[in-house]
Amino acid sequence: MSAAPLLALEHVSKRFVRAPDLAGKIAKVLGADVRTEIVRAVDDVSLTVAKGEVVGLVGESGCGKSTLGRVVAHIHKPTEGRVLWRGRDTAGLSGAEARDAALKIQMIFQDPFASLNPRMKVAEIIGEAPYVHGLADRRGLDAYVADVMRRVGLDPSYRQRYPHQFSGGQRQRIGIARALAVQPEFVVCDEAVAALDVSIQAQVLNLFMELRRELDLTYLFISHDLGVVEHLSDRVVIMYLGRVVETAPTEALFAEPAHPYTRGLLSAVPRLTSRKTAFRSVEGEIPSPLNPPPGCHFHPRCPHAMERCRIEAPVLKEVAPGRTAACHLHD
Amino acid sequence: MSAETLRVEGLQTHFFTRAGVLKAVDGVSVAVGRGRVLGLVGESGSGKSVTGFSIMGLVDPPGRIVGGRILFQGRDIVGLPEGEMRRLRGSRIAMIFQDPMMTLNPVLRIDTQMIEAVRAHDDVSKAEARARSRDALGRVGIPSPDERLKAYPHQFSGGMRQRVAIAIALLHQPDLIIADEPTTALDVTIQGQILAEVQTLARETGTALVWITHDLAVVAGLADDIAVMYAGKVVEAGPVDRVLDRPIHPYTRGLIGSVPGRNRRGVPLAQIPGMTPSLLSLPPGCAFRGRCARADAACATMPELSPFGLDHLARCVHPHLEVMPG
Ligand SMILES: Nc1ncnc2c1ncn2[C@@H]1O[C@H](COP(=O)(O)OP(=O)(O)OP(=O)(O)O)[C@@H](O)[C@H]1O
Ligand SMILES: Nc1ncnc2c1ncn2[C@@H]1O[C@H](COP(=O)(O)OP(=O)(O)OP(=O)(O)O)[C@@H](O)[C@H]1O
Ligand code: SF4
Ligand code: SF4
Ligand SMILES: [Mg+2]
Ligand SMILES: [Mg+2]
Predict the structure, then answer these.
(1) Does chain B have fewer CB atoms within 10 Å around its N or its C terminus?
(2) Among B171, B254, B250, B179, which residue's Cα sits nearest to residue B209?
(3) C-alpha span between B179 and B159 (Å, rounded)
(4) What is the value of ipTM here, to two decimals?
């Protein structure tokens, strides 16, 4: 193998524990069967990302994409497994190195409403980190912030305003500007363009691609918009209920999806040319991450489910060069 | 009862900020009939959400409705006393907010919130309210609704929070739903589930929908009519097929041209040149002037929204009249 990948996840799991509340605890004392609930948000995921690569991450709402993104961005510690940055376990990095890695990996958050401090002006939100980390000095800061704002299509004359004075899409661009302002090497984009109209979306996506060419920026691109993912990504990772179910180079995936969930996804994509569509409900039962079904997590919804699928979880394995899938149909 | 559920006429909602008057919505007219869907699309920051808030009577200072009428089932609801407005809200008119946390209270469990929402307008027992809540969660595709009812909002993923907010909006089978980017946080299979649910509601109970979204493909499949907004005004409106296949306004053309599916993989996406003008300092005339390839001296006076064929309106002095190349 050549040089170590920029980022590698090795058997990463992240579980959230939900302890019973007071009423639950009392009920438990009284003998009721109250259990602590555990959500396996991310369940044994391994993944590598090479420098300069764009990896699209797609999957059902609640399947653990944001959680995985947060693990990558050092916001969550994995419950199990290792996160390697330039080949080194991030858990073992010391002070300065850990700070450096944290700065080099930035996350653009899904929720522009919750992720901006409402009491800070836009200029402070964007300018704080570059100033603290010495990317701009006091005199140059104003021009630096204005330049970043212009790059994401925000009028710099807005810089003395507070987040609540902006529309949803404008707030999202503030979040994008904040992440790009510290000159990261790796950006986790969590639904970064979902709140933008398609023309501004095009502008931001073109900016992402330009930064990639100029600075060799690497992206983990989380999105529900398969059109965007197809346009942008080199490789796509599909998750379902905490697990990776398929990975493939983008063109191959869209040409011939290997996993039944991926096939379902692609067939549900609305098209500009289909009018008066009769949208379809999900067939079968939508399983819960609190209580995932045994065997293949997708079996309650899978049109090809067999007896074996209800018992044995399929492992992710190579189904063609450069492609993996977790499905018994490929045995 | 009037067949028209909502008619907005010349709505103006302005924000009186320290930096000046920001005309977020400046003369918007749209209408939607019983059981029909209006797709409201347009530039980010063009006033779509503020239009929705205005209809709901939820514009806070320094914002104020300064002009126009909002007819709900024939009755002007602008300036209705707050008590009456509250009775309409949640039962007859519901809004699904772009930010689901505007519907959800972070410190209360989902069941507390949903049961309260049911009992605010319907005199039913707690048990019945709970049953209706769990049923509503099931319909929007939340698995294990019984367990999920006991959770707090932060324990949900972004998309699940949005589905809870949608479920709350559906609780009372309202006559009008204003949905602001309701499905962008959902994967396309779950989105399909929600859209199917909403279509059933429109068909069976005659609910009228204003569907605010950036996803033109969803609008294509769901809406009967489209209104396109730019800088506080409707710049084009009409039946879906007309607006998507024969867009008249240069902004609408630019918007449709930017959809990734219409662009070749890997090459830069087509984008509209220039930047959204600041609403605080709009020059006179067409607001799209600084970015439009067709602009000339004639565009320096604001064009009227004028008809181009049946029900198809646009605000432009140099309209595109040919079919948009594919
Ligand atoms: N802080 C938390 N405490 C408890 N459970 C959590 C927490 N954060 C996430 N979860 C749970 O973990 C699972 C995965 O959530 P996550 O936000 O990663 O999903 P997602 O794939 O990003 O979904 P979406 O597409 O809706 O944003 C969900 O079941 C969610 O309820
Ligand atoms: N409370 C406020 N104070 C001042 N200006 C505001 C306020 N709320 C909204 N605005 C401004 O009003 C304009 C319209 O905002 P609105 O939220 O309606 O846009 P939108 O069309 O919904 O955009 P998006 O697609 O990005 O959500 C924006 O320019 C915004 O900056
Ligand atoms: S393993 Fe079985 S249930 Fe799972 S996706 Fe494959 S065929 Fe369907
Ligand atoms: S009125 Fe003029 S500037 Fe405005 S969209 Fe039409 S041609 Fe362009
Ligand atoms: Mg998420
Ligand atoms: Mg909005």
Answers:
(1) C
(2) B179
(3) 15
(4) 0.84
Alpha helices in A216-304 (DSSP H): 226-232, 250-255, 260-268
Exposed e or buried b per residue across A33-55, where buried means at least 16 C-beta atoms within 10 angstroms of its C-beta:
ebeebebbbbbbbebebbeebbb
C-beta of B305 in contact with ligand 4 (< 6 A) = no
**Could you give the C-alpha distances from A254 to A182, A229, A230, A257, in angstroms and in order?**
34, 10, 8, 6
CA dist B16 and B61 (Å) reads 8
| Nearest to B324, CA basis, from A91, A85, A160, A273 | A273
Residues 292-331 of A with CB under 8 A from B: none
Best CA proximity match to B40, nearest among B174, B207, B233, B299: B233
Sign of the dihedral defined by the CA atoms of residues B86, B87, B93, B97, in that order: positive
Q: Residue A73: what are its φ and ψ, rounded to 5°?
A: -85, 15
Count H helices and E strands in chain B, helices first.
Answer: 10, 12
Which domains does chain A show, CATH number per domain? 5-330 (3.40.50.300)
pLDDT digits (tens, 9 = 90+) for B45-87: 899 999 999 999 999 999 999 999 999 999 999 999 999 999 9
Residue A161 vs residues A132, A166, A233, A257: alpha-carbon distances, Å: 21, 8, 34, 46
Query: Min CA distance, A41 vs chain B (Å)?
Result: 10
If one counts every other C-beta atom within 10 angstroms of the C-beta of residue B220, the result is: 23
> What's the pTM value of the predicted model, to 2 decimals?
0.90
In the DSSP assignment, the letter for residue A125 is H
